[in-house]
Design a protein that fits this description.
The chain is α/β, with parallel strands linked by helices. It folds into two domains: about 170 residues, Nitrogenase molybdenum iron protein domain (Rossmann fold), CATH 3.40.50.1980; about 120 residues, Nitrogenase molybdenum iron protein domain (Rossmann fold), CATH 3.40.50. It contains 13 helices and eleven strands. The strands form three sheets. The protein has a five-stranded mixed beta sheet with strand order 9-8-7-10-11, with helices on one face. It comes from Microlunatus parietis.
């Protein structure tokens, strides 16, 4: 997801900026890292897919270059001084954001491509890129600006579970206690849903993401955006992929979820004749620019409880065995 061309072209400029910033005094951004951080946690060495990164002292100016890393920093009480744009979504307005950042325009450091000049100008002392999809070259350039934490090699690229990402973020920021607390609170939301709806266990679910003239994309367990479903007890296909309308009947399971599905495509005969649709077991979760889609993409301990509030009642209506109780469509 990162283009090496833009990084290489900016290398000389970034090195110049770094030389200049090294001669200047640095004042931490107001409120960027609360004083309650666990100073005793430093120095800390983080292991990741590119090697190790040692963070000598409590970070004061954190830039997040992972697509969803800003949410994880905020979840443990740290406001980044710069963030990566994600989903073309107005992130400061997301309903699960902490009150302190609602409506605030945090400086951005790129979207699909990272802007190394912008990152260097922010004078970070830590760069968080756990969900950044960076390669070796990008990592080398970023770590030349500041200590950089990337994804571990324990999971496929971009597939770090939310709780593990929270743990890593807390460790890097000296906020492990806060990370443990927010993980427990988020797991409690899952536990409450599971206790209230034991019927979810073992149900086979299909999650269709987007539609086109050719068909749909079926999200599998290899995509982190199905993790919340499996945590609730649902079974999903091990691997996702494109599925044509002609083969859609192979996905006629216990419950069908859809996000970003065009109304015209959903009304096609090959879709409407599916048993799961005829029996009212389809859960429509809105468009790509709705809050649910953003909560799904951020997949953070802040956004997941919001996601559950929307999805769980609709999943309950789809799996109660009563065709008369059809899930209400989510309208954003």
């Amino acid at each position: 997801m990162h283009h090496a061309r833009s990084l290489t072209a900016l290398l000389l400029t970034v090195l110049t900026l770094l030389a200049a910033s090294a001669c200047a005094s640095t004042t931490p951004g107001t409120g960027s890292v609360p004083a309650a951080s666990e100073d005793g946690a430093f120095p800390v060495t983080m292991t990741h897919r590119f090697g190790t990164t040692t963070i000598e002292a409590r970070p004061q100016r954190v830039v997040t270059v992972g697509f969803n890393d800003q949410d994880f920093a905020l979840a443990v009480g740290v406001e980044p001084v710069g963030v990566r744009e994600f989903l073309g979504y107005p992130a400061p307005d997301r309903p699960w954001a902490p009150e302190g950042v609602r409506g605030k325009q945090l400086p951005t450091v790129g979207s699909q491509d990272l802007d190394l000049e912008a990152i260097a100008k922010l004078e970070p002392d830590l760069i968080l890129g756990i969900n950044s999809y960076i390669d070796d070259e990008a990592y080398g350039l970023l770590s030349g600006i500041a200590p950089t934490v990337a994804q571990t090699a324990d999971y496929p690229e971009g597939a770090t579970p939310w709780d593990k990402q929270t743990e890593q973020t807390g460790q890097a920021l000296g906020r492990s206690e806060q990370a443990t607390k927010i993980i427990a609170e988020t797991r409690a939301a899952f536990d409450a849903a599971i206790a209230e709806h034991p019927e979810f266990e073992g149900k086979r679910a299909v999650f269709l993401l987007g539609s086109s003239a050719a068909g749909f994309y079926n999200l599998g367990a290899d995509d982190y955006r199905t993790g919340w479903l499996t945590e609730l007890g649902f079974d999903v296909d091990a691997k996702g992929g494109e599925i044509s309308y002609e083969k859609l009947d192979t996905l006629d399971r216990d419950v069908l979820l859809g996000e970003g599905i065009a109304e015209a495509d959903f009304k096609r005969d090959l879709v409407q004749q599916l048993t799961v649709v005829k029996e009212g077991r389809y859960v429509g979760l809105g468009a790509f620019d709705d809050d649910f889609a953003a909560a799904l993409g951020f997949n953070s301990p802040l956004s997941l409880p919001f996601l559950l509030d929307i999805a769980v009642p609709r999943l309950a209506a789809a799996t109660d065995g009563d065709p008369a109780t059809t899930p209400a469509p989510y309208l954003g």
